[in-house]
Amino acid sequence: MREAAEKVSVELDGVLRVIYVTLEEVCDVKRGKRLVKSELTVDGKYPVYQNSMTPLGYYDEYNFSADNTFIISAGAAGEIGYMDSDFWAADDVYVLQTSSNLMSRYLYHFLITKQNAILSKVRRASVPRLSKTAFEKIVISVPDLTEQNRIIKILDKFDRLTSDLTEGLPREIELRQKQYEYWREQLLNFQK
Q: What is the pTM of this model?
């Protein structure tokens, strides 16, 4: 990986500088290491990601530290994840370690915008697969670190709001249903 070489830079209002580079120019793409199921536990210290966004199990060691974006390469191939804690990436996971001028959380949000393009590169076989060459040429816009941080804060806030609504809505619907049933019984129960 090299520091992002300026291929194209853009200045907006004379302030914001954005460079456009390929993913491989600003990331080291590392492949995880295989673990066998007998090595996993249900209550280990670190989640193990293999071929889905749900941990396969847990392990007492980690091979990647917190603040890393990753892409699943088999099974749920093309799914994009971000870990804010240490974790174990198995061999069906590509971890994208960023250069000093690219924040991993910014990369995660950016790659989500490219999700459909990445998914379109998945080879559909008995087990769906995604090769590194399918995504390493993606062009990424890299503003300065201050702007990346501002973007992260805004997108994380929307992400939390969406998550809260998604999790809270079924519970709220259930409570309103019970409330309706209670008042229906109260209001329509005419005792003689």
A: 0.79
Burial 122-160 (b: 16+ CB within 10 A, else e): beeeeebbbeeebbeebebebbeeeebeebbeebeeeee
The yes-or-no verdict on residue 4 having pLDDT over 50 is: no
Closest CA to 51 of 79, 29, 31, 82: 79
Is residue 183 scored above 90 in pLDDT? no
CB 153 within 8 A of CB 145: no
Terminal alpha carbon distance of the chain? 83
| DSSP tag of 58 | E
14: pLDDT strictly greater than 70: no
